[in-house]
Structures are given as C-alpha cells and as structure tokens.
Design a protein that fits this description.
639 residues, alpha/beta, 7-stranded mixed β-sheet, 24 helices, elongated
C-alpha cells in the first residue's frame, strides 16, 4: 500500500483537527420561545413516531391508562423539576452543571463523568433509535416495501452515515427548518388522530371490543391502576426532551431589561417553552395511545408487524390512504432524522463543555470532526448490536433519559434543601423518589441500557483519567494576577535576577523563614547580600485543571513572601517563574530541598493531590512550556 504524500497527510490532519465552531454555538440571534420550542420538539415530538407502538406493546389494552400516568408524571414531576433547573441554570448548563457545583473536588468530577456516560447513552441511542424508526417507516411503506423489506440494518447504517457526513462537512442548526418540520409533523398527526377518532365514532364496536378485552384481562379499575403503575417505567420514553429544552435556553429571546447575570425574561419565556411542549405532547400521547390501542390489532405491534415502531403511520395509511400515508411517512422520516441531528449537536456540546476543563480530553477532542467520527462509529456498533430494532433499543434510551431526569431531580432537591425551603424540598424529594423507582424498575426490566451506559462510563473514565495523567505536566495556568504588594516586589527586582525559595509553610512564623533561608544559603553558597523571595503554593482543589493564579505579596518581619492558591504546586511554580522572567527581563532561580519517599507514591500524590516530587515535576513542566533551555528559569535542588 502506498502512503499518501506528506502534504496530503498534513492536509487531512488539518481538516480533521480544524477548530470548527461547535454546532451548538452557531447561533447569533435570539428567537421567540415558541420557535425554540420547535428545536426542542424535533427530539421530543418525534417520539410520537414510535411511542404509541411501544406503549401498546408494553401495556396492551392498558396502554391509554398507563399513558395517562405518564402524562401525570410529566406535568406533575418532570415539568416542575425542569422549570426550576431553567431558573437556576439560565445559560443552558443543565442539571449536570448544577450537581458539579454542589459536589466540588474529585467526587464532583467523577460524578459528572458518570452522568456524561448516561448522557452519551441517551444521545447515541436517540441517533440510532430515530434512524431505526425512520427505516421502519421506509420499509413498511406500501410503495417501497417490495424493494426495501429485509434491509433494515443497512438502511439504518446509511441514515446514520449520512448524518455523520453532514456534520463532517459542517452543520448549522436551523430553527427555521425545525419550525417547519414540527408544524408539518404535528399537523399531520392531528389529521391522523381526527380521522381515527371519526372512525371510532362511526364504528363504536371497536371501542366496545377494547372495553371488553380490558375488563376481561384486568378485572376492576383498581387492578388496572395498579398494573398501569407497574407498567409505567416501560413507557418512560415519553419523558424525553426536557434536558434538550434547558440546553437550548441561550437561544430564547428575553426581555429588554435582561442581563447575562440576571436573564429574568429568558427564564420566564423558557418556562413557557417547557410548559407548552409538555402540554402539547401530553395531549398527543393520550389520544394517540387510545386510537392506536382501539383500532390496531395487537399482533401488528409485534416485531415484523405493520404497526411495529410506526403505529400512527399504520393508521395514516389505513384511514387516509397510501398517498397521504406516504406524505406522513416522509414527514416522520424527516423529523426523526433531524432528531438525530439534534442529538449529535448535543453530543458535540458535551465534551467541550466539561472534559477540557478537567484536563480529561485529548487535544483532538476540541475539534468537531474527530468527535463526529467517534460518535458515528459508536452509533454503527449500537445499531448492529440491536439489529436496528426500535423496541430493543427502547430500554437503553429510557435508561439514559431517566438517569438524567433523576439527576435533575436530585439537583433541584439539594438546591431547595440548601435554601432551607422545606415544602419544595419535600415535594421535589417525592418526585425524585418517583424517578428513582422508574429508573431502577426500567434497569431491572431492560438491563441493556445500563450495560451500554456502563460501557460508556468505563470507557469515559479510563480515557479521561489517562488524558489527565498525560496532560498533567502542561502549564495548566490561564493567567497570573499580582496584587499591589507582589507587583512592588517584582518592580524592585527589575535590575537583577531573583532568587526564589520554594517553601512549604508550617506555622508561618518568622523563625521558620529564618531557618529556611540559612539552609538554602548554606547549601547553595548564596551571598548574604543577595536578596531572596519565598514562594508558597497552597493546594485548594487538586481536581481543578486550569487555574488563574492570584499572587498575594506579604512581609513577615523582613522576609518577602509570594503566596498563591492553586490546584497543582509544580505547575503553579513553573507559571510564576515564567511570569517573572517575562516581566523582569531576567531568568529567576528557584531553590528546592530534596523529597524522599516512594516515587510511585509521589506520582499519585501529584496527579490526585497536586503535590508530589515538586522539583522534578516543575522542571518537566518548564521543559514542555519553554523549548529553549537557555530561556528556562534555573532549578536548584539541595539536601
């Protein structure tokens, strides 16, 4: 095999790693809340393509009652939770960022990684399930069935590949397109439901047969309610869309008096967005579950049946004719594909928002195109594992959705608790328990979701921590800021190089500095007339990757001290040495004492606690930050 010329390889690398703006950040204008609702709706409303069929398959004749419970949980649980999330995180951060703030340190970082694993499950399965359902609408269309039947997997892979190609070329979310798709799709669904209700009115025996089957199978109404409650977790797909509704908040037009610090109008309008979407979806879910259960034979919902994954499409063809049904199929395919595009945009927003801040992403993860390739390959694998089956992927999708909703409920409950709001704490706590029950029941009933999520979580943690290890010797400083005293110390040293003593503070008494100065001068043959400055680094949160160093200058007796808080001692020392070099024009020298102990222990202490074998790591950080040895500050180590 002949390798391409070097310039071609460079071009390919440049194209892949180009710092393309993230699709989630390609918006330059704000929009009315109802238009942004349509962007959310391509994910939320598109579930009508498969939710009625999944509900009928899971609950049978109880589908309408089980769907009613789903609607009650939506309006009484998910909606209040996410209205509160929108109020707390009005810039689209969502519940994951709320929990990140509530759980500082490594605990918070690891918890966020776990939630990101579930979010990956949610978004990847959104892509694969939507593509699979779009395929189902294609191959069951009367005009296309003879050609495409039996080709579900290749067609689904082609749709996913097409999505990947579009993002590789450059995809800009179009709210205008989302508005057209959502309005068209909801209008067609409305016509299908009206036609179905009219058919039920014209032929009341369908309703009578359903009632007979319902009471024969389940007896009294209380038994029906109890069984419906147990079946509710299987219908949890109907809860998807709220996390997306919060993520798109930055696009919502606020009021004239809004500021970035206090966007009251944006929050208010987002509440309208979430409420309207929940109400619209609730009505469609309830009525569609009724007409599909009453009019469609149970056998048609099974795998291979004409209503499998496309219950409303079945009714569209049955009662409005194949030409209308084909238009309905095309609109469904379009909105399902766009739901996959929305999920891909959400995925591309996850890694840049969290992992680079943690130092837990390779350099190439900042670029869009390599991530698109990774996500597309993952979607291929999931499609092959589930054989492009809508029903088989329902459990995995529901797991991702429910875990994110449970995390949002926990975040809102903890927020209410910290605000000492007793009633909201109790109410949100109760909603949290409902989501926990639903999540656990779904995991036990359909463990595929937790297996996929566990795979994503394990891979994410391993890759992230490995990246953190390899990037730990970067400079990791976003800037250096000196207070007036510290700046004065440097100003007085403009004419000569500085001698700096790295010092681990004990009690901060003058005798401590006196003893340290005598040791350093004796071991390094420094003249008594040569001025020195002590440098002290206090580790505050070692899990933080990137710091802005704020240097405080102070004098204790006659000793001058620069005191800094940072996440990592060696990196902070290296950054301050380079700052001193650049602002005084002289190379500073820094003096350390030897550290004794197990090298492996010091490596772990540096990675986890920001300390370790400070002189050696400081030299390595300087070597990476400054390629020219002649321009590096001097490092001296003595016993």
């Amino acid at each position: 095999m002949v390798s391409p010329p070097q310039k071609h390889r460079r071009y390919l690398a440049h194209w892949l790693l180009k710092e393309d703006r993230n699709p989630a950040h390609e918006h330059h204008f704000k929009h009315p809340w109802w238009q942004v609702m349509c962007l959310t709706g391509v994910d939320y409303f598109s579930t009508l393509g498969y939710q009625p069929g999944i509900a009928a398959l899971a609950a049978g004749t109880l589908s309408p009652l089980a769907t009613l419970i789903l609607v009650l949980v939506t309006l009484g649980g998910a909606l209040p939770i996410y209205r509160r999330v929108a109020q707390i995180s009005p810039h689209g951060e969502g519940s994951i960022a709320m929990l990140e703030r509530l759980l500082p340190g490594w605990r918070g970082k690891l918890f966020v990684l776990v939630l990101l694993g579930f979010a990956l499950t949610d978004f990847i399965i959104t892509i694969t399930l939507s593509a699979a359902d779009a395929t189902a609408h294609l191959i069951e269309n009367p005009f296309l069935a003879p050609i495409l039947r039996g080709q579900a997997i290749p067609i689904t892979l082609i749709l996913i590949a097409l999505l990947g190609v579009v993002f590789l070329k450059g995809f800009h979310e179009a709210i205008g397109l989302a508005v057209v798709l959502v309005l068209l799709y909801l209008s067609l669904n409305f016509l299908v439901i009206v036609a179905s209700l009219y058919h039920i009115l014209q032929h009341p025996q369908f309703l009578a047969h359903w009632k007979t089957d319902l009471f024969t199978a389940h007896g009294n109404p209380w038994m029906m309610v109890g069984v419906s409650l147990l079946l509710f977790p299987k219908l949890a797909l109907g809860l998807s869309g709220f996390e997306t509704g919060v993520a798109v908040m930055p696009l919502v037009k606020g009021d004239r008096g809004d500021t970035e610090a206090n966007p009251t109008g944006r929050i208010h309008h987002t509440h309208h967005l979430l409420t309207a979407a929940a109400l619209i979806m609730s009505v469609f879910l309830l009525v569609s579950s009724l007409v599909t259960t009453v009019l469609i034979p149970a056998a048609e919902f099974e795998a291979g049946g004409k209503a499998s994954g496309r219950a409303l499409a079945y009714l569209a063809h049955e009662y409005l004719g194949n030409p209308f049904g084909t238009v309905y199929d095309l609109s469904t395919i379009a909105i399902l594909w766009f739901a996959g595009a929305s999920a891909m945009a959400g995925l591309l927003n996850l890694v840049p928002r969290y992992l680079p801040r943690y130092g837990m992403a390779p350099d190439w993860a900042r670029a869009v195109r390599p991530l698109v390739l990774v996500y597309t390959v993952l979607a291929f694998i999931i499609t092959l594992i589930f054989e492009a089956s809508v029903e088989a992927q329902g459990g995995a999708y529901a797991t991702g959705v429910l875990v994110l909703m449970s995390s949002a409920a926990v975040a809102v409950t903890l927020d209410a608790y910290h605000r000492k709001a007793t009633l909201p704490t109790i109410v949100f706590g109760g909603i949290t328990l409902i989501f926990f029950y639903t999540t656990i029941a779904n995991i036990f009933e359909r463990p595929d979701g937790i297996r996929i999520a566990a795979s994503f979580i394990t891979a994410m943690i391993v890759i992230s921590l490995t990246s953190r290890v390899f990037r730990s010797t970067e400079l990791r400083v976003a800037g250096v800021e000196l207070d007036e005293t510290a700046a004065q110390f440097l100003a007085e040293s403009q004419s000569r190089s500085l001698s700096i003593i790295a010092h681990r503070r004990e009690r901060g008494l003058w005798v401590e500095y006196q003893r340290k100065e005598r040791e350093v001068r004796a071991n390094n043959h420094l003249f008594a007339s040569e001025p020195i400055i002590f440098l002290e680094i206090d580790v505050v949160d070692a899990s933080v990757f990137m710091d802005v160093l704020r240097v405080k200058g102070l004098e204790i007796d006659s000793y001058r001290i620069l005191r800094v808080q940072s996440a990592a001692v060696p990196n902070a020392i290296a950054a301050i040495l380079l700052y001193i070099r650049d602002h005084t024009g002289h190379l500073p020298d820094i003096y350390f004492g030897w550290t004794e102990g197990n090298p492996l222990e010091y490596i772990l202490r540096f990675i986890l606690l920001g300390e370790g074998d400070v002189p050696i790591v400081t030299r390595e950080v300087l070597r990476k930050a400054e390629p020219d040895p002649e321009q590096r500050p001097g490092i001296h180590v003595s016993g």
